[in-house]
From TrEMBL:
Keyword annotations from UniProtKB, A to Z: Signal
Signal peptide extent: 1-22
Protein name, per record: Receptor ligand binding region domain-containing protein
PANTHER family xref list: NUCLEAR PROTEIN
């Protein structure tokens, strides 16, 4: 059976229940796997405020989600008739930064540092050049903070609107966050729109030798080999859309790995990064002392894992996004290998683009957010969703334990 046909084969493998634990796996032809783990435990976090008891039935159950959005996106993809990504070369580009000096992101300097010195930096009110280099079409990197993005798109004049297909948007990390809700509001979440998951550092100006801006560095990490002996990577930059190859070329020339993919695959990677940014930062921020990302992975793994699965389950039902099997292993590997001295933080201005972007009840996340605000003095002035007094939603049928793809429990 060929990929692209309308029928998918689904294989369900159920493992025999050993003593007091049971596992079940669901494998589809797309390579997506969900796991379920049943146990009964009592866990108390070091905050002294959360006590959690998990008890699930060992009976085999299946959950079914239906979301017309995923079907529509797949039909749109088939209608293009393309089996390969269209590629555009890198070259002189426009970088759009905030007109407010305090809101200019380190991302602007990062993009400049990755180029050949022929890019130009504009504010949203400036006029776009008719040509750049010898090209009338060129990438327009939108390096605005996410909280300025909606206003920017709303106020586009006709000149800028006509160049919208050349826009390049960024997601990921505490600088870029999740901008999908904003872009979707203006119909900019589609195959042709160039988007990038940031898998590289964004050094602040003056952090390099001689006071110059330090060049961005690759944050991806090799986490092992698959059954065919090929390398497995986590945390790679990924790009999709019209200028995906130009973005990849710019990063590759600077030693930064970047995958070029179709929008559907890119979207999974983006939400995987969003889970990482949300979970590790909130779990680390509720500690009495400053905690870095690596410490969360090493010492608060149970809490981080439980919250990951809560968010991932609701992504599947709420946004028709199913993360690729092994996401937990990848995210913990990134934290362990790249999270040292990366202090957990909850920037107030990024709340609606990091923690407050996930669908569903997300009870555990809301408990931690309210604790961070009420007990830790964080997120002051932010309207944190209250913890519901009564949960009307049924618990997810998908496993909510702590088994990682590498076998670590």
């Amino acid at each position: 059976m060929m990929m692209g046909e309308k029928f998918l084969a689904v294989l369900v493998v159920a493992m025999v229940t050993p003593i007091s634990h049971s596992f079940s796996f669901t494998l589809s032809a797309t390579g997506l796997v969900t796991k379920r783990y049943h146990t009964s435990t009592t866990h108390r976090s070091s905050t002294g405020s959360f006590e959690k008891k998990i008890s699930f039935s060992s009976a085999l159950g299946m959950a079914t989600w239906s979301n017309g959005q995923a079907i529509k996106e797949y039909q749109d993809f088939l209608s293009t008739g393309r089996s390969e990504l269209q590629k555009e070369d890198d070259g002189p580009s426009v970088i759009v930064q905030s007109s407010k000096p305090n809101n200019v992101l380190a991302l602007t300097d990062a993009i400049i540092g990755l180029g050949q010195g022929d890019d130009i930096v504009l504010n949203p009110s400036d006029t776009l050049p008719d040509t750049l280099g010898d090209r009338s079409s060129y990438p327009i990197y939108i390096a605005l903070p996410p909280y300025e993005l909606k206003e920017f798109i709303q106020n586009l004049n006709d000149e800028w609107k006509s160049r919208a297909e050349d826009f390049v948007f960024f997601s990921g990390g505490n600088v870029c966050g999740v901008v999908e809700p904003v872009l979707r509001e203006f119909g900019m979440c589609r195959d042709s729109m160039t988007q990038v998951v940031v898998g590289f550092s964004t050094p602040a100006p003056g952090t390099g030798l001689g006071g110059a801006t330090k060049k961005p560095e690759d944050l991806s990490c090799m986490i092992g080999h698959d059954t065919r002996g090929e390398e497995k990577w986590a945390g790679e930059s990924q790009s999709c859309g019209k200028w995906n190859a130009a973005v990849a070329s710019r990063l590759d020339d600077n030693g930064i790995r970047c995958k070029t993919v179709f929008y559907r695959e890119w979207r999974r990677a983006m939400w995987e990064r969003a889970v990482f940014d949300c979970v590790f930062n909130i779990v680390g921020c509720v500690r009495e002392e400053k905690t870095d990302i690596a410490d969360v992975a090493m010492f608060y793994e149970l809490e981080a894992s439980d919250m990951m699965w809560e968010l991932v389950n609701n992504l599947r039902g709420g946004l028709a996004v199913t993360l690729i099997y092994g996401f937990e292993d990848r995210l913990f590997s990134i934290a362990e290998m790249r999270g040292k001295d990366d202090i957990c933080e909850l920037p107030v201005e990024m709340f609606d683009y990091s923690q407050n972007v996930f669908p569903g009840t997300n009870l555990m996340l809301k408990e931690y957010l309210n604790y961070a605000k009420d007990k830790c003095g964080l997120l002051q002035g932010v309207d944190v969703p209250p913890v519901p007094s009564q949960i009307d939603e049924l618990p997810s049928k998908v496993r909510m334990g702590n088994l990682r793809a590498d076998g670590v429990i």
